[in-house]
Amino acid sequence: MEKLTEWIKAERGRLAELAGACKITHAAILQWKRVPSDHLVAVEKATGIPRKDLRPDLYEGMEAA
Q: For residues 65 and 62, what is the distance between their CA atoms, to the nearest angstrom?
């Protein structure tokens, strides 16, 4: 969440942009403790932050060998 929070704060209007991309309200995003798995693809696409960085708990041990 830290990278996402930094992305949102970096420029005015980003929270609304992200909410639109996820088709939810900005208030819903502000309640996230971590990005819900059903929004990972939309958040990655909107922010450019890789989903493995957004939710490393879901991608542990999946690195290429």
A: 9
Distance in angstroms (rounded) separating the CA atoms of residues 2 and 18: 15
Residue with tokens 């088709």: 23
Q: How far apart are CA 63 and CA 29, in angstroms?
A: 28
Assigned token pair, 4: 């996402």
pLDDT score for 64: 58
Topology of 2-59 in CATH?
434 Repressor (Amino-terminal Domain) (1.10.260)
Q: Divide the 65 residues of the chain into consecutive groups of 10 and give the mean pLDDT of each group.
A: 95 97 97 97 98 93 65
Q: Are 6 and 20 in contact (CB under 8 A)?
A: no
